[in-house]
Design brief:
Largest sheet: 8 strands, mixed
Structural class: alpha/beta
Bound molecules: zinc ion
Shape: globular
Radius of gyration: 21 Å
């Protein structure tokens, strides 16, 4: 078992408010074995002199789609599964290069790609997956065109192209139950429900309420019976409130949230995952990648709510995780969320959203997003102090000379 002894660094443990001097940290196998303000001695460990740079835990992005390799979702119909997988592998490596050692996929990634990362066949972040999002006919994840006259179950297969991973359409309590059980049979870590309209789907109004309370309740019951939880795509207070009342644990996006909905979320112990960067990136560049005018018009309805949603959640006490939700060619902007949030939030809180809060959302508190003993040895070395300069997370990992994941040195350019 290889061991590494880190010396001479500024420690950025996100539960503390400032970086600390004078610590040493030793990893053994895949774990952090000890962190101490006294010298650690080890006969066998490889010593890494960090040269005074900042050591922090690996980042967590709680809303990604590694398989959605096109900005325009309908274009996925033209992407074969081999190409989808190859592009996903490239995207995952780029995420790891940016310091994201863990990501939560909220629709698309399956157990196969998760397994590929886990067994070292592909470099990439640890994956926590939703499989296919479950939503109703005509909802955010219904792939059919209006000219398709068949019911969803009567369509010839979507299984030969990347659209296969974007949807699990189910109507009625029994069908939703079956859909949720099927995703869990396929090894998902959480269930994603579509509970309001979305930007990247052409037909469903943003303020539409998707899935009935009965359908959502059965999904939550099934997920909890299996030891999983439900997270819901929702923009409006009405959709968020319905989700909260039915036992959903997480809200994705939530741009149009209001104070009562946020208070209800806080009361129920729920999490919001915000992803403001997606809307800015879509406004700037989605048209060139084929996103149509209807979708871009919906983007304008939510973009201004983004920063306000952060402030509302802060006042109500709702923990907000770091998300990006960037599709296809826009994924290079993944770390820009740090900069956007800094307009309304202190740096340390943004860093916590991408470490401690992400870990709680994944139910991996103490194992991810922290430098404490017993946590996974996912570590970043930063050329400067991110508490003073979030620009250090930009430029595709250029300011991270060392990235360790699971106790292994993925990048070592000191
Ligand atoms: Zn998404």
């Amino acid at each position: 078992m290889s061991a590494y002894l880190f010396k001479n660094f500024q420690m950025l443990e996100p539960s503390m408010d400032e970086v600390r001097d004078g610590y040493q940290l030793i990893t053994e196998g895949g774990l952090i074995k000890e962190v101490s303000d006294k010298p650690i001695s080890s006969a066998s460990a490889t010593v890494i002199d960090c040269g005074g740079k900042t050591l922090m835990p690996g980042l967590i992005d709680s809303h990604v789609h590694v398989y959605l390799s096109e900005v325009s979702i309908p274009t996925l119909e033209k992407v074969p599964l081999t190409l989808m997988t190859a592009r996903g592998a490239k995207q995952m490596k780029a995420m790891l290069d940016r310091g994201f050692t863990t990501v939560r996929d909220t629709g698309g990634a399956d157990w196969g790609i998760k397994q590929a990362v886990a067994e070292g066949a592909l470099p990439g972040p640890r994956l926590y997956i939703a499989g296919r999002p479950v939503g109703p006919s005509g909802g955010h994840s219904d792939p059919r065109r209006r000219t398709d006259s068949k019911t969803y179950s009567g369509m010839s297969c979507f299984c030969c192209n990347a659209m296969a991973f974007t949807h699990n359409v189910a109507d009625g309590v029994d069908n939703v139950r079956r859909a949720v059980r099927e995703e869990m049979r396929q090894g998902v870590d959480h269930i994603k429900l579509m509970m309001s309209g979305g930007v990247a789907s052409p037909y469903d109004p943003l303020d539409s309420l998707q899935l009935s309370p009965e359908e959502v309740t059965v999904a939550v019951q099934e997920a909890e019976s299996f030891g999983r939880y439900v997270t819901a795509h929702a923009y409006t207070p009405e959709a968020i409130t319905r989700a909260a009342q039915c036992g959903v644990r997480g809200i994705e996006h939530g741009n149009l949230i209001d104070e009562p909905a946020a208070r209800l979320m806080a009361e129920k112990g729920m999490f919001l995952t915000a992803n403001l960067v997606a809307y800015y990136a879509m406004r700037e560049r989605a048209a060139q990648f084929g996103m149509n005018a209807d979708m871009l018009a919906k983007n304008e309805l939510v973009i201004d709510g983004g920063l306000r949603s952060l402030e509302i959640c802060k006042r109500a006490g709702v923990p907000v995780a770091y998300g990006s939700d960037l599709l296809g060619q826009l994924q290079v902007d993944q770390s820009r969320e740090f900069l956007i949030r800094s307009e309304v939030m202190p740096h340390i809180e943004i860093i916590r959203s991408a470490t401690l809060i992400g870990a709680r959302l994944l139910r991996m508190e103490g194992k991810l997003g922290t430098l404490k003993a017993g946590a996974f040895a996912d570590l970043l070395l930063i050329s400067g102090n991110p508490l003073k300069n979030l620009g250090l997370f930009q430029d595709q990992g250029a300011h991270m000379p060392l990235i360790m994941q699971d106790g292994k040195l993925y990048k070592h350019a000191l």
